[in-house]
Amino acid sequence: MSKMKRHAAASRSVGGRRSPRSSAGAKGLVALAKGALKPTLAPIQAGTPGRAGIMDGTDGRPSLVWARYNGAPFTAGHLGGWQPYWGTPGSEISRERSLISSVTLDLLMSNPVIAALVEGFATYAVGNGLTLSSQLNYGALGISKEAARELSHQIETAWQAWAKNGAECDASGRHSLPQLAVAAYKSFLLTGETLFVIDWQRAAGAATRTKVNMLDVRQLDQSITRVAEGNNGGSILQGVQFDKNGRVEGYWIRPFVLGNVNSAPQPVFVRARTLWGRTRVGHLFDLIQPGQIRGISPLAAALTPAHSKSTLREFGLAAALVQSMVAATVESDLPRDSALRSLATADVMDMPAPPGISPEAWAEAGAAYYETVKVNLQPGVVTHMMKGDRLVLHRPQSPNTVHDALDKSLSREAAKAAGSSAEDVSGDYSQTSFSASRLAQELPWRINKRRRSAIVEPFYQAVFAAWLEEACETGRIRLPDGAPAFWQAPEAYSNSVWRGEGKPIADPLKAAQADILEIENGLSTIEAKLGERGLDFEEVLAQRKSEREQLEAAGLRYPVPKNRDDWKPEDDTPSTT
Hints:
By secondary structure, this protein is α+β, with helices and mostly antiparallel strands. Among the domains are: 327 residues, no CATH class; 66 residues, no CATH class. The chain is built from 18 helices and 16 strands. The strands form 6 sheets. It has a 5-stranded antiparallel β-sheet. A 3-stranded antiparallel β-sheet has the order 7-6-13. The relative contact order is 0.12.
């Protein structure tokens, strides 16, 4: 029986029960409509000790506050649902994750700081997608280096065509793999987890059967916690099933179908891998504590300053509007009613001088004067006021220097807590020098690389290994003579390096000069510097060779650096032959 036939046979029965593929129907598992399984959160009242979340602020309005707990370490679990007992590893994560996910998803639609962080992180980590650099282990495959290079080129070309075609890679037939990768990373940013299934299904207009099915993390049923069925000694914690050794066996997932809003499907067990090791379910999160089962949003610490910044701007705007409503006042010795009449609107009319000089007569004259002569605030109009009266214009005091300083401080705090820079959050680089911008980008770039290696690269690698298995077994990828079958050496075939967007550069000229100095003095290599820019050395080398051959064939010189010691003016002139 061939490998792919065993693949189909194993999909019919897993552990004596119908597999999730068949029990979920031909449509398979599809993404859950947003909000269908939104967890029910217990309301948090003001003054409640040892709780976190939305509370009443000092202004009487709801405020985002994360309070300290007064309980013992490793106590209660997440709000609502199962509560892990004292001593459960990662119980703090379980306690907070549902509430944080709900708040983060809500602020994404209303808070510009959270929206900027999510979009910026996704652009830095994924961008237009990661580029495959196939690194076949030709020694383990028993083939020559030249044959491995040719096979790598064949794999990279076929992979690029498959990943860009939504009908081929997406279970819903709508999105390319880079788009799915962006969705996977944004899910990690907002909920702390990425959940996907690698399906095996026929689809109209698709030549391959390997399909990626992105799931809402709420489809992983967090309420299921019990001893696993059978005599394997395993257990289920928050929808994740483990064997007696603590190794993941599978997941309990609710198989929602897009467009079917009337269904209430029960969770089904889906194995993490097939019997021969092919990835079936991918559940990715950033490990914070040993024994952690579910993930938590990396934006959790940034929620409070981001919400406070939004509240500050809201109250600052309200104060400015109130002060703008009373932009001018009249200071006068006249009675209050007479002075207020001067700010009404009316045409300026001539009026005879008031008779008498007594205070009473003067007041009456002023009142009568302002009955017809009005203070007009329109530009270019000169208003004559009574002697001793002054028109005072008031400038809004908010936003002011204190407001601006606090606003910037909250931006820096939110950015730092999330792993970004204040400039990325505010979009203001007017006060940032080249050196300061490089220093500000250094740590966020390192954090971005770590998160990319923890979330985005495993997502790509799991999908790539499944696709490559099918491509090799079905003959779409022609293996060299003498090479083993894919199932005999899957690691050697699927070994690869993934390159994403390059490091942000504040000043390209200075950055290029610094790279040249490092290469010339042996502090770095061309491959390393190209890797920092998201480029593959072999691809750049092959492209440069091709360009040089085409330029020389057209009678043109290939451009060379003009700062080299051996450069001559004639090196940059067209050939006359």
